[in-house]
């Protein structure tokens, strides 16, 4: 068979994702998301890992996205198209049967009776003349034909078999692209939901601080009226509250954009999305972090498997083009009947049978076929480079995720310490202010540090959740099983769409 047989690549894989060794666990801290996370090298991440965050709202968002995402619907349609193309290419491997039939109507004349009943001499001449005149009268007739034919391409060079091989590889590629689309959607949903949760926490923290400062402002007004404080202290405090309040509208804009992004991901208009609220305080940080071996990752991660399937397709396409360099033999057979009714048509049908073979051998084409083989080889080289890049990119994503979890835990512990110190410093400042030991401006300065520490602490919490989800997405295999993929590519979805279009209706979305 022309062309190379595909060999599954065996990329060089490192023993570990990070330099040195994967740490056993992250640092622990007090408070929300402060638990230590334990890395489990060699363990595979199970499907449904998003349940580990303990948020029913997050699970609901993902389920709605599975049902309504336009991107998933498009990817599912591409898989069905690839399956249909595979069926079409398989048809080239079997004999092709055909049938034909026709009926035609016509009229014509004849002179076969011109020597009829006339005798000798004048009588004979008259008889012959009369008979001949009657023979040229027009007569109607109908001719019928029917036939069947069969042809079979022997596929001597294997071009058709390579076409089937290429179509099968494309089907596998689209199946893995669909798996990757599911993973990307899950990652985007988790990321956007956590971003919204973080923004809500930031807004709530600012509103609480503003409420507390408003109480302090009322006390400051009284002290100014009593002459205990200078008005400059009150004005400074009012300015601080106004500045803090001014940070809320941009956060609300970001929150609206994040929620609108979620609406897009689940396939709903923003006004009708009714996005479930995911709150940071309700989330649970997964303690176990399975880390698949690098050699295992290249056999389970969907984007790598899709790149591998593309490589298999390019290999088969070399064979498709190379097969055109060799002779090709086709066998043909046919059987037909023709007959009819009428004056000139046959009274009984006649049968015709034929059997033949056709051979085509390329002799000279100016190097076109060789050039097309070169094009296919270059496409294979490109696919191989893309495959290697996909593998390296996957290793980098996992390595980044491991280091991010390690550093996020340390950052959260430091931010927790900084927040507790800032809170204690603020309490002491307020106590000293009550004793008249420091000015209100001194208190406001310390309060700003506390606010900054509180906002940074919220960001640190969100980062632990965000980076954990990102690492899981980098390690995850496709969420669909073989049976689910077969169900998605089932032909009835195409039949449904075809029937709806024939009826003048737009098919339902999300199929």
Written overview of the protein:
The protein has 511 residues and is α+β, with helices and mostly antiparallel strands. The protein has a single domain (38-102, 162-325, 368-502), classed as Outer membrane efflux proteins (OEP) (Up-down Bundle), CATH 1.20.1600. The chain contains 12 helices and 6 strands. The strands form 2 sheets. A 4-stranded antiparallel sheet has the order 2-3-5-6, with no helix packed on it. A hairpin with a 7-residue loop joins strand 5 and strand 6 (350-360). It is elongated, with a radius of gyration of 40 Å.
At the fold tier of CATH, the topology name is Outer membrane efflux proteins (OEP)
Tell me the major beta sheet.
4 strands, antiparallel
Distance between the termini: 39 Å
Cα shape: elongated
Q: Which spans have pLDDT < 50 for at least 5 consecutive residues?
A: 110-136
CATH-derived architecture:
Up-down Bundle
Integer average pLDDT: 87
**Which structural class should the secondary elements be placed in?**
alpha+beta
CATH C-level class: Mainly Alpha
If you compute it from the alpha carbons, what radius of gyration comes out, rounded to the nearest whole angstrom? Answer: 40 Å
Order of helices and strands, N to C? EHHEHEHHHEHHEEHHHH
Strand arrangement, largest sheet?
Answer: 2-3-5-6
Based on the model shown, name its key terms.
two-stranded parallel ribbon; elongated; Outer membrane efflux proteins (OEP); four-stranded antiparallel sheet; alpha+beta; 511 residues; 59% helix
